[in-house]
Amino acid sequence: MIERAPESRLEARSISIGYSGRDIIRNLSFSVPTGQFTALLGPNGSGKSTLLRALAGLITPASGAVLIDGLPMASMSRGQIARRLSLMPQSPRAPEDITVRDLVAQGRYPHRGLFTRWSLADDAACRRALELTETLELADTPLCNLSGGQRQRAWTAMTLAQSSDILLLDEPTTYLDISHQLNVMALLKRLVHEQGTTVVAVLHDVTQAARFADQMLLLKDGQLVASGPPVQVMRADLIAAVFAVEATIIEDPVDHTPVCLARR
Question: Which of 48, 58, 243, 248 keeps 20 to 30 A from 114, CA to CA?
Answer without folding.
Answer: 58
